[in-house]
Amino acid sequence: MTGGQVVPFGDQALLAILGNEVDEALNAWVHTLVTAVLRERDAGVPWGRPVPAYASLLVPYDIHRLSLAAARGRLEALVQLAAETTPTMSPNLSVTELPVRYGGAFGSDLEEVARRVGLDEAHVVELHASVTYRVFMLGFVPGFAYLGPLPAALELPRRSEPRPRVPVGSVAIAGRQTGVYPSATPGGWHLIGTTEATLWDPTALRPSLLQAGQLVRFVPQLD
Amino acid sequence: MTDAPVLAVLEPGLLTTVQDLGRPDAAPLGVPRAGACDQLALAAANLLVGNQPGAAALEISLLGPVLEVLRGCLVGLTGADFESVSLDRSTDEPPLRLSPGRSYALSRNATLRFGVARDGARGYLAIEGGIAVPDVLGSAATLLSAGLGGTAGRPLREGDHLDAHQPPLADGRLSPRVWPGPGPSSGVPISGPEVALRVVRGPHADLLGDAAWRQLLSTAWHVDPRSNRMGVRLTPSDRDTSNAHESMDRATAATPPAPELVSLPMTWGAVQLPPGGCPICLLVDHPTVGGYPVIAVVAAVDLPTLGQLRPSHRVHFQPMELTDAQAELIRQGAAMGEAARRLGLAEPGNRVAGRTGRTTSV
User: Is the Cβ–Cβ distance between A200 and A169 less than 8 Å?
Assistant: First the structure.
């Protein structure tokens, strides 16, 4: 892992830019860096809560206790440390399994997806369910997890017209990503299935089922 | 301390929501921070009634509500001037004009009528004790996009009743106060329609190039009516439209196209520059990640002013050194602390009232 840089993001935060791609190794580096920042925070370094994305990390800091130069130096050191210690595989991470009913009324775009990628529906489902996905980050709406990488054979651009409202629990794909809509929001991805798992409950002790850095598999349910 | 109904909503106004300081730590869950757009004004309104600065209060936007007072209470008013009046029909007294930057003792059965905001976008109404709504993820703030927090995740509606925490009777009633300064009680621009916003260079300023940076600083930007709590949209000023479009075209032609960015974390105050060239300044409800390049970031000391921009304003960005921005922010915080001391809140927490809006770990 090379090439990470740390720049200011406003006057109360830094941005660690590790790359500019949707890439598992880059994202693993981001999450190793999150762990390193949180460890320093627990030890009293005045970092705020870091916010991860695909290949970058926002790190707020308390300007009363840390100068820009000191914060930058510290984070640059952590970026290098994380580069050196990022595991190339994640052997012991638990995998969250999401039961999914694919196609038909549960996945209104499956038929079109199959047609556009030149596979039959069963093969699309098999491919989608064959991968252990990484949660790259949460964003867009509360509890929405960006999962990837989707098998290249299923790659399609977003829908040209987003739906104003997708059903809760819709399992969807776009580009090299897949995800589950945690609530009935607008959505521009292709809906291929539905899960009954609760992705987002703000009143729960753990409001989001999925967290960045976790692993996820989809398990086809047969009625 | 018990909660008791204090206000009834007769007319909700354009967008009136319960807000506090929001959920700054919830971004990793994809949860926007929400909270008051002008946090200086929220804090000042609360301090005027003896609350912790981050207690839940009402944020009132552009066209305000009509509220009935259900029990005698002290209210603090800051932010934009809505030419609001309080009318007590049980007396013969004329309507009392309420000015921002003060607290007022209101009687049961009085009607509080807010008009149209003149000089800024948002006003804040704090109630002694703090507004009582259930916390969600550690805050009372309303997140409209996700329908959570505040009053059931939505703006106030006709017929709503709002509760406030009641301070213990033994404490007695605080008297009405005027904001003592030293600093202002809100981010409302006092300079008239031309507003200077200080910015530091954004993470993608180099990528976007010098021409784009010069364009940002030399344009008089009009605040688009499509602006909302997610962001302030800017367009070239009406007056300068043809010139601005021409010079923007030249600038765009001179700048190499920015490469596609994968989504990165966003922050309140970030000035995004989408391909069309019209900047978006992110506000508190902004989605937590985004893919547009960030050319600048509003200095935190000017975020209260950003939260007060309305379509009648024209924005002029001014470059600021980052260390100067930090120094100004620290000064602003010290001024707030001094104001709290002058209001008799030398040790915030003595007059326990409402929630501070601090989030729990998530």
Answer: no
Give exposure, B44-80, as e/b (b: 16+ Cβ within 10 Å). Answer: bbbbbbbbbbbbbbbbbbbbbbbbebbeebbbbbbbb
Which among A9, A68, A139 is the nearest to B30, CB-wise?
A139
Beta bridge partners of A127: none
Whole-model pTM? 0.91
Distance in angstroms (rounded) separating the CA atoms of residues A218 and B4: 48
B28, A11: Cβ pair inside 8 Å? no
Instruction: Collapse the DSSP code of B93 into the 3-class scheme (helix H, G, I; strand E, B; otherwise coil) and give the result.
Output: coil
How far the first Cα of chain A sits from its last, in Å, is: 45
The distance in angstroms from the start CA to the end CA of chain B is 28
Q: Which residue among A49, A53, A202 places its CB closest to the CB of B137?
A: A202
Distance from CA of B208 to the nearest CA of A (A): 15
What pLDDT, on the 0 to 100 scale, is given for residue B2?
A: 84
pLDDT tens-digit readout, B12-37: 999 999 999 999 999 999 999 999 99
Q: Do A138 and B29 touch (CB under 8 A)?
A: yes
Structure tokens belonging to residue B298: 């509003």
B16 contacts B63 by C-beta, under 8 angstroms:
no
What is the average pLDDT value for chain A, to the nearest integer? Answer: 94
DSSP string, chain A: ----EEEE-SSSEEEEE--SS--HHHHHHHHHHHHHHHHHHHTT--B---EE-SSEEEEEB-TTTS-HHHHHHHHHHHHHHHHHH--SS-TT--EEEEEEEESGGG-TTHHHHHHHHTS-HHHHHHHHTT--EEEEEE-SSTT-EEEEPPPGGG--PPPSS-BS---TTEEEEETTEEEE-SSS--B-SEEEEEE-S--B-TTSSS-BS--TT-EEEEEE---
How far B62 CA sits from the closest chain A CA (Å)?
A: 27
Please tell me which of the candidates A17, A138, A142 has its beta carbon nearest to residue B146: A142
pLDDT value for B167: 72
Beta strand pairing status for A190-195 and A170-174?
antiparallel
Q: Which residues contact A27 (CB under 8 A, 6 or more apart)?
A: A54, A55, A134, A136, A137
Confidence of residue B173 (pLDDT cuts 50, 70, 90): low
Predicted complex: ipTM over 0.95? no
The residue-averaged pLDDT of B155-159 equals 98
The residue-averaged pLDDT of A41-58 equals 97
- Spatial separation of the C-alpha atoms in residues A129 and B113, rounded to whole Å: 58
User: What confidence tens digit (pLDDT) does each residue in B32-88 have?
Assistant: 999 999 999 999 999 999 999 999 999 999 999 999 999 999 999 999 999 999 998
The rounded distance, in Å, linking the Cα atoms of B38 and B309 is 10
Residues in chain B: 362
Cβ–Cβ contact B265 with A under 8 A: yes
Q: Average the pLDDT over A136-144 and give the result.
A: 94
Give the model's pLDDT for residue B152.
96
Whole-angstrom CA distances from B236 to B38, B222, B302, B359 are 24, 6, 21, 39
Q: Which of residues 18-47 of A touch B (CB under 8 A)?
A: 20-22
Kindly state the percentage of chain A with pLDDT values over 70: 97
Considering only alpha carbons, which residue of chain B is nearest residue A208? B29
